[in-house]
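Hi everyone, sorry if this is the wrong subforum. Our group has a chain we'd like a structural model of before ordering constructs, and none of us has done structure prediction before. Sequence below.
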Amino acid sequence: MIALFVLLGQCRISTTVKKVFEVINQMQADGVIDIYALGGAMAANLYIDSFPTIDFDFFVSVSGASPALDPLRPRINYLEPLGYKPKGVEFEIEGELVQFIPFPDKLSEDAANNARILEIDDVTFRAFAPEYVVAVMLKTGRLKDFARAKMFVDQGTVDMDTLQELIERFELKEQWQKLIQF
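Answer:
Right subforum, don't worry. Here is the predicted structure as tokens:
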């Protein structure tokens, strides 16, 4: 289980989570990944009451052509010598599961390009802004995503004007209506 704690309104991270962010930042500095941003449940936990999650979802852009039949190869070549092994589509870094997700759509790419730069416990990292987290949840459309998206709205952690602009731009009106009725 990932150790990210919210105590009295302040986020704290465990030593292993801190190391994960350091490894990701170094991967970017070394050109293994270009743009990255934390998304998924871990990003949501930065903004709303936290809930259990088992992995980090890093949305990434990689320059150059990744091998079509082995898209993880550049990450494997970088991480294995450091002692971090692949486990299926994820990597285990300091005991934490980390998934590198190439941008599946324009929404995720835009979310990463407009990511917030956050600092927790002296570690700087990029994470989807809350409005983008909600927009991605709406697009994904799973029941648990609607429940979490509703938490963002109910807890007032999104700028509604920004969220409405994303809903319009990425054609999520139908999903938004479902959330309102949820």
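For your construct planning: The chain has two domains: 1-128, 130-182. The chain is about 45% helix and 25% strand.
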